[in-house]
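A favour, since you know our structure tokens better than I do. Would you make up a two-line entry for one protein for me to read? Write everything out right here, beneath this request.
=====
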Amino acid sequence: MAYFSGTVQSQVLQMKTGLNVITPVDILKDDRKYPVVYLLHGLSDNCYDWNENTQLTLLANTYGIAFIIPEVQRSFYTDMAYGLKYFTYVADELPQIAQRLFPISGRREDSYVMGLSMGGYGALKCVFLRPDRFAGCGAFSAACSLKACVQMADESQEKELKAAFGINLEHLEENELTTLAMQCISQGFQPDIFMTCGTDDFIYQMSVDFAAFLDKIGMPYEFQKWPGVHEWYLWNKSLHLACAHFFTKQQDDYCNIQ
């Protein structure tokens, strides 16, 4: 595999920002454009944690996919009320940067977004607001309810949420996943959604409630759950399951090419 770690200049953020990329071992072997997963970190993580705690290299080589892992701080993948435009960076600018630097596909059917916790929220947000760009998402232990996040936030976390969604949280409702899912389905899109969560996770009920909401509006999804907490063991397993869910056919094609 090829592992790239460094910074890119973002015009949207108006600064350099960290980026990690994991590719299949033979990515320079031919002229093909590889499927891609934009992989989003959680609230207390950064762009290095996925590579340090999961088997990305194995998955990249097994399925013939590239992983693009951005840095977004504690922004909730949002164009912040008092801060930077991290949603626009991840959903719009980053795919353009990645496609210019690496031989990855820009086709919707080859583009997916996955994430854990805050990143699970970000992945769902990306696929609901840009369903023409991303075919599906993997949301692991996702923060599916911003209102619930506010209720459980301490004083410091409440300040961060106000920086993202407004001093009076006036932008909270428009960024709720329930709102965004309704917008997506009203546009005629039904992206492929794969969710996981540990049944002992402190935010497990968020996933249960959101799955029930998707049932209510008729949006198809798969939700897998098993005993576990908010932990990397579960997220590594979730990543394996999500890659199998999305890329089994691509894996067969990739093996045939090799």
Summary: The first strand starts at residue 2 and ends at 10.
